[in-house]
Amino acid sequence: MGRFREKKSGSMPKISTASLPDIVFILLCFFMVSTTMRETTLIVKVRLPGASEVQKLERKNLVSYIYVGQPIKTTYGTESRIQLNDQFATIQDIQGFVAVEREARDEADRRLMTTSIKADRDTRMGIVTDIKQELRKAGAFKINYSSRKAAKLK
Amino acid sequence: MRNKREVPEINAGSMADIAFLLLIFFLVTVTMDVDTGITRKLPPPVEDNEVIDFNQRNIFEVLINSANQLLVEGKPGNIATLKEETKHFFLNPENDPNLPEKKPEKIDLLGEMQVSKGVISLKNDRGTSYETYIKVQNELTKAFQEMRDELSVEKFGTKYDKLIDPQKQEAIQSVIPMAISEAEPEDVGKTK
Fold it and tell me: Is the Cβ of B187 closer than 8 Å to some Cβ of chain A?
């Protein structure tokens, strides 16, 4: 019996774990490359509406975002506000914002630029319409009404 | 020769743990959200209020008021039936004289096709809620998507978004264009 056990333990070679860090580092690099960090902090409340016919937004670096919703801090009131980059903005700021965003992209990519409107589902259409009119004037025709993918609508 | 002492080897056993910690940190902080939404193309700004004349029978009017109620072709409408009504209007299967005209057009890959001249006119109030607006847009998109799918299955045997050949996609698109027109909004409800 003893001899038998001895033979078994002897035949078990040690697995080298030296390459384990490399494997994990590769995983880490994959995650760092494939994910994007959220670069703006929201100061308005955005609960996206649900829709079933949504399309994925391709080429995220060509997308500029306009957030619309009630301010998170109630000291700013409850009226729906527009957020561009990291601050509150007014309707008049949109054309300038589009111009700046366009300037930051490659010339070849400019006509592929999309503006994503991330509006809260309780927003009134008035403010959204104003934004759309400004975007038309600014020449940013491709827009995307950001919405969650919902399998079935209530 | 004396100088070349043996360098003590650094224990790399904990390296894996460090890397795992980093990995977990990234997994937790990073947001993997995919941005999705309904894509639309805005029309270029109109110069002086030029009125484009449309035959009344070619227009499918969808109105949304500030209380989020629908008026479809002059009758109170419902989001649940909007899709079917849109499809019926656009395709006009019985060639009803009150529904849009069709124009025979020669299209690559498909040959002579009856292209509907119907246009969906969507008009909303400034007080309409965004959620309702998106729901309506969603139903209209679904109607067009389904019509494209049906035609695509009939002609090419696959659904529209499964078509690989961009020429085939274009052919389907020219038979069923995404004809949604948005009118300038009105402020009837005065709820700015």
Answer: yes
